[in-house]
Fold:
Amino acid sequence: MYNRIRDLRQDNDMNQTQVAKYLNMSQTGYSKYETGENDLPTTVLIKLAKLYNTSVDYLLGITNERKPYPHNN
Structure:
């Protein structure tokens, strides 16, 4: 899971500071998610899935399908 969030960030040409700002947190705090030092809270998983236009299941490694699920209106 931690490799996925790092890889997605890099694939989107973003640095940790940019993602941390999107999440309204420090770069150091975000870095601990990428290294696995801290677990990802549900709210952060949802925000990252929206940022990268993917599903939480993809972030968690449950599926290899990057395409997001359809949204409820």
User: Anything to note?
Assistant: Residues 21 and 69 are 25 Å apart (CA to CA). Helices lie at 2-11, 16-22, 27-35, 42-51, 56-60. The chain has one domain: 2-60. DSSP finds five helices and no strands in the chain.
